[in-house]
Amino acid sequence: MKKMADLLSNMQRPGMKEKSPAQAQKEEAVKHPLFQNAIYYEDPRKDLEEDSNLWCQMLAEADKVSDQLRKNLWDMRTWGTRIVRGKTQFVLRPDIDPTGAKAWPDREMYEEWRDKLLKPYAKQIGEILKNLFVWGESER
Fold first, then answer.
1. 98, exposed or middle or buried, with CB in 10 Å at 0-12, 13-18, 19+?
2. CA Rg, the chain, in Å?
3. What DSSP line would sit under 4-31, residue for residue?
4. How far apart are CA 61 and CA 59, in angstroms?
């Protein structure tokens, strides 16, 4: 748990250091399809490459709903939440690391924070997940 806390203390949550649109346009080239309104959406867990593009989409779409939803999803991703294919659409699932160093220490902790941070936005998250896509794939 201490290792994860150290990792999180060095990360910056979205919204804490935002650039003005003019600054962002000058400093950032359009590097990614998810560069919108002078905000460059990045995955806070670049080490979890398999679903990184999905998380960029997720954060960009969540920002259209509310700043708080984007921050809550960012927090969940930071702890190691994944986007995986379900039976009919993408779903959120925890990575589990019993040491708590790289991911959720157990499913119970994930579920506690999922309920606290995401449950109020369940309908919106469901819609976002339904509309995610993998670049280069014609169908899900």
1. exposed
2. 15
3. HHHHHHTS--TTSSPPPHHHHHHH----
4. 5
CA 113 to chain centre: 14
DSSP per position, 90-107:
EEEEE-B-TTSSSSBS-H
Please list, in sequence order, all residues whose beta carbon lies within 8 angstroms of the beta carbon of residue 99, skipping any fewer than 6 positions away: 1, 3, 105
Angle between helices 107-117 and 67-78 (to 10 degrees): 170
pLDDT in tens, 9-33: 555 555 444 555 555 444 443 344 4
What is the model's pTM?
A: 0.71
101 and 3 in contact (C-beta within 8 Å)? Answer: yes
Q: Which two tokens stand for residue 48?
A: 């979890």
pLDDT single digits (tens) 73-99: 999 999 999 999 999 999 999 999 999
